[in-house]
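The instructor's notes for this session suggest beginning with a concrete chain rather than abstract definitions. Hand out the sequence below and ask the class to guess, before any prediction is shown, which regions might be ordered.
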Amino acid sequence: MINKIIETFEEAVADITDGAVIMIGNFAGPGGFPYYLIQALKKQGAGNLTIVANTAGGIKIPGVLLDFDDHGILFENKQVRKVIANFPFSLSPTHLSPAEKQVNAGEVELELVPQGTMAERIRCGAVGVPAFYTPTGFGTVIADGKEVRYFDGRPHLLEHAIRADYALIRAYKSDRMGNLVYRGTMRQFNPIMAMNARVTIAEVDEVVEIGEIDPEVVVTPGIFVNRIVRIKDDPGFPRHLERSFWVRDSEAI
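After discussion, reveal the predicted structure:
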């Protein structure tokens, strides 16, 4: 019987090598973020990584944003060579994230990508489409060095698919074959990243037996998932929607 369950997060990321391209599901706080997988990757220590994610990790402003360790800890640990992100810098001009400091210092390469464009680049990488044209970004720094073609009189940029070695994602429920169900903000970049990578590792709340998940509610079929690790500990902060991640005191920024 197929069983993709891995007992520990450390074991799940043990074979990630230096120079790997890693997609990390994240958007709007910790609800859809693979917190334990990132902690394990920091301990594992693989370096020279390329990170593909919505952000480049947040910042910690006491009393303002929910305090939890996201993938910013990989930048703090000097494990990242390049980041491909939509919103790579902090909300505050006076509180710089570790990634922002390293990009400004020339220590980390930044590829800034519009959010919808990155989603499509990831999807294209998953389904074998090498490139596509989009009007998004024409006339901005996003267009620098990119091929431009006109369709119906409108300029479009050529964008190339992104492929990853690993995808670290967060889901709500899985069976032993890796069929995944999401909840709330988990259903953002996680599903398309899960389809893309050579190795997809899912951090989940619950694992059930095969047949217990209604096929109609499966978002990511198990064929895309290689490893499943169930969360066993309370991280000490909300993982779903019980508390707002967003700014609570604008004067603190």
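Then share the key points. The longest helix spans residues 115-127. The domain at 9-131+161-252 is CATH 3.40.1080.10 (Glutaconate Coenzyme A-transferase).
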